[in-house]
Amino acid sequence: MKYILIAVSFLYGGLIVAQQTKLKQTIYRAVLYRQDSNEVVFNMDFKIEKGKPVLYVINDTERIRVTDISRKKDSLFFNMPVFESSFHTKVARDGSLTGVWIKGVRGDGGPQRWPFKATPGQSFRFAVPKSVVKKSISGKWAVTFTNADGSKENALAVFKQKKNKLTGSFLTTTGDYRYLDGIVTNDSLKLSTFDGSHAYTFVAAIDDNNTISGGTYYFGPAGKQAWTAIKDDNAALPQQELPVSLRKGETGLNFAFKDLNDQPVSLKDDRFKDKVVIVELMGSWCPNCMDETKFLSNFYRDNKSRGVEVVALAYEYSTDLQRSKASLQKFRNKFNVEYPMLITGVAVGDTLRTEKTLPQLTPIRSFPTTIYIDKKGNVRKIDTVFYGPGTGTYYDDFLKEFNKTIDELLAEK
């Protein structure tokens, strides 16, 4: 009996090793399944770098590098580098993955769990038809989203089409939908994105080169909006109603919160004296905040010697301090953030979040919001929306305006 057990154990162990070698270094087509069975599709690239597994999540030109990967027998686990976002999967003999995507949500309840499957050797996102596409939708589009109650929201879309390939983004009053990736057929479009937090799909009919109709925007496990669009090279950016501003009689901010090392930080501290200060209102759940944090971290390293300081105020999913710390630490590690990241202790869903943290301001309506403070401690400008690198020229415009503002404030006595 002892020899039989040893033989069985050896055979089972050999099977596990054989299965482990089947995790292929190739492009995978990954699918997340919503509650209504609609899919959010993206691509992943598995590699071995310096003897360790690395995964890249692909959306258009973006490649999100994932290194927190572990394996136990036929199970594979990987955590996204930012956000409360992870995958628990099983590896089949052909290298395919099945399991769940687990995403943290607001409040102290349990996370979302989405069914997930990834198939190796499939570099396409959506099936590309063999027919030649005759319609071209590259350019700017004035978009109208319609909610279930009939209310409407204006947005701007920027699309770039090359044959069947379609990329671009939507710009809304609160930010952008980052890197969208998909296809155009003769009569329709499909776009999707996944970055660890965003899990979106857009579909619509292309009536002609100037009209898109019958669209549906799928977001989250069950949410959806109808949308239409009209080609308009002069389409303006959507404007936010009642953007945050200083309250009457106020000139500056006054706050004191603890950083990730439990040390109190205030604008009255010596490090901010006679400096131009950028205050970033953000959250570790926010993809646009991820893009701005990446930019600000690089900017700070290159410009802190000029007399510029940055401080981030985080409004997290819950008031659980340890949960907030863990999420923000991922941000700090990923982007090598050297400036203070402070936990306000007020949840983003708190309707009194502004009054409890920055009562000098009118209600904060979007994240990130960026506040520019001059050397005398006066608030000089507030940007209530951020359009990131997925928006092309709009991100370039932000960079120009940002640098112009900082240069002007630094030049003041």
What would you say this structure looks like, in words?
With about 425 residues, the chain is α+β, with helices and mostly antiparallel strands. It folds into three domains: about 1-120, Lipocalin (Beta Barrel); about 140-230, Lipocalin, CATH 2.40.128.120; about 255-410, Glutaredoxin (3-Layer(aba) Sandwich). Helix content is about 20%, strand content about 40%. The protein is built from five helices and 24 strands. The strands form three sheets. A nine-stranded antiparallel sheet has the order 4-3-2-1-9-8-7-6-5, with no helix packed on it. It has an eight-stranded antiparallel β-barrel with strand order 10-11-12-13-14-15-16-17. Strands 19-18-22-21-20-23-24 form a seven-stranded mixed sheet. Strand 23 (about 370-375) and strand 24 (about 380-385) form a beta hairpin. The longest helix is centred in the first third of the chain and has 19 residues, at about 1-20. The N and C termini lie far apart (about 90 Å).
